[in-house]
Amino acid sequence: MPKKKLTSAFITKSKPPVKKGARIEFYDTVVEGLVLRVTSTGYKSYSLRYGDDGIRYTIGKADDISLSDARDFARDLRFKIRQGEDPQAEKVKARRSTKASTVSDLAEMYKKRHLPNLKESTLKDYTRRIDNFILPSLGKLPIKEVERYHVIELLEDIAEGDSPAPIQSNRVRAILSSMFSFGINRGIADSNPVQHIKPLGKENTRKRVYTEAEIKKLWETFEAIHEPFSSLFKMLLICGQRAGETRLMKWEDITDNVWTIPAENTKAKRVQVLPLPDLALKVLSNRKEDPQPSDYVFASTVNPNEPINWLQKVAGDVRTKSEITDFRLHDLRRTVATYMAELGVDRTTLGKVLNHKGLAGDTQVTAVYDRHDYIDEKKQALQIWNIKLKQVIDGTI
């Protein structure tokens, strides 16, 4: 069988065999076992060959799945195979045992099998959008009868209906596409009708960074709101971590003034080790005086054994009290990153501080082989920012 580094251009230009009923397979040189099959009818599909018997696992139609996604899917399959699993046997078993026939059935299976792998907040968000938008419109349709026009009508209704919500439309599109990709993997869907539908909503990248005067005003407002939100919002401005990760901070995650964020709590799904600067340690010292002890640093006042949730209501209070009417929690992270860059922190270190794969320049290779955790660089970067932040807060600049 011919071997070749597959490219999108090559796949598009690949011609079918002349002989009727014939097929040709190209083995990818990037991911072992990944195969592009082209039949005499012009049908092109991806599959994975594995095992001594050359078992073939069909990944999907090349028109419905990008080469990048096919490679990622093949890598995941190879990982399962190394763990002793047999993906093709499981696929056949799932196809025989499943009774999923409608989009509603697919959604329930997706909720049960896929969503538990996501963060709690993401799980709730996906469930809400599935229940409120996808199921009322497409739920009763047989999976194999869902056409592109069904999806387009749904997305247009959301984006351009009585209460236009273009961003909501984009989110629903992404979830529905994920559902059908899941269905293909489970052997209960043959194609993804969402694959080639472009997002309908125009999204503008938010670039808001707070001025020094606004930072001072926000800090004063943070001190005026009630705990533990006061301390949490300060910590976001001090350390620049994501709100969803920070609110899950536990006392056991802090050792020798270093905060270790477990992989399961991070968006990047990898451990983040963060040396805590002086202002952060002061916040933690204040939190230790909380009369209601908890495993969580920022524990719910209603359920002490749970972290605080629903930050947006308090964020709304901050907007009102600070008179910074466009305040958003994520802007604090962007503000920290911007000031660090202005203070001379290099891009790689900045990416490590923020645990941002793209900004740090990490690739699949460096993620595996680069064991340097940049602990000293992160400590210096955070301390430089905290000196600047303290000057802003104290009004000594």
Features:
397 residues; alpha+beta; Double Stranded RNA Binding Domain; hpI Integrase, Chain A; 3 domains; three-stranded antiparallel beta sheet; 17 helices; 50% helix; 10% strand
Give an overview in words.
By secondary structure, this protein is an alpha+beta fold. It folds into 3 domains: 3-88, Integrase, DNA-binding domain (Double Stranded RNA Binding Domain), CATH 3.30.160; 98-186, Orthogonal Bundle (DNA polymerase, domain 1), CATH 1.10.150; 212-394, Orthogonal Bundle (hpI Integrase, Chain A). The protein contains 17 helices and 8 strands. It has helices at residues 8-13, 67-82, 87-97, 103-113, 120-138, 148-160, 166-186, 212-224, 229-239, 243-246, 278-287, 312-322, 329-342, 347-354, 357-360, 364-369, 375-394; strands at 3-4, 23-28, 34-39, 44-50, 55-61, 254-255, 258-261, 272-275. The strands form 2 sheets. The chain has a 5-stranded mixed sheet with strand order 1-2-3-4-5, covered by helices on one side. A 3-stranded antiparallel sheet has the order 6-7-8. A hairpin with a 4-residue loop joins strand 4 and strand 5 (55-61). Helix 8 (212-224) packs antiparallel against helix 9. The longest helix is centred in the middle third of the chain and has 21 residues, at 166-186. The radius of gyration is 25 Å and the shape is elongated. Mean pLDDT is 88; it is low at 363-371.
